[in-house]
Amino acid sequence: MDESVEGEKDKGIKGQMESMEYRYGSYCGIYCGACEIVIARKNGQLEDLARRAEKPVEQLDCDGCKSEKLARCCTECKIRACAMEKGYANCLECDECPCEHFDQFKKGDFYPLYVLMINNFKTIKKAGQDAWLKQQEKRWECTTCGTPFWWYQKNCESCGKEIFNCEAEAAKLDDS
């Protein structure tokens, strides 16, 4: 097992959830720091997002799936629940990964996230969780101005530059 995954597991689930350095690392291999909800919260735009999504703010308020403050979609996530039940730091520790809980991401609008999850697991295995988190933080910032952007965003909100989003990355990974 990767030392960084082992080190994270040693903290226990509660310790991981309280650790600031891991709150954007997820169980499923997706980077929570590029979630539209997390970014809107950080930017003070959660109420605007809730209005557009026609959902109560309380259902969207989230600091990442390993934090104490979770959006409704995170509290209902079967991947998160399974990993926590098994006491895993992430799904990489499970011999069944990716299991049937990932099937919901294999089709439709979520497919790009599925491709990223599988690719991210490869990176985490090779480089470790800490290196992956640092890489992801940079990956989800505009290369021109450094503004963070979310997975499906088309253009940077600050400078307008076209973004290399999850759809573009998944298409590139599918082609290779």
**Rounded mean pLDDT score:** 88
- Distance from N terminus to C terminus (CA atoms, Å) equals 27 Å
Helical fraction equals 40-55%
| Beta fraction | under 5%
Largest sheet: none
What would you call the shape?
globular
List the helices and strands and how they pair.
Elements: H1 3-10, H2 12-18, H3 36-42, H4 46-53, H5 57-60, H6 72-75, H7 78-86, H8 111-127, H9 129-139, H10 166-175
Helix pairs in contact: 3-4, 8-9, 8-10
Description:
With 176 residues, the chain is an all-alpha fold. It is built from ten helices and no strands. It has helices at residues 3-10, 12-18, 36-42, 46-53, 57-60, 72-75, 78-86, 111-127, 129-139, 166-175. α8 (111-127) packs across α9 (129-139). The longest helix has 17 residues, at 111-127. The two termini are 27 Å apart. Residues 1-22 have low confidence and may be disordered.
Short description:
Helix content is 48%, strand content 0%. By secondary structure, it is mainly α.
Features:
about 180 residues, mainly alpha, 10 helices, about 0% strand
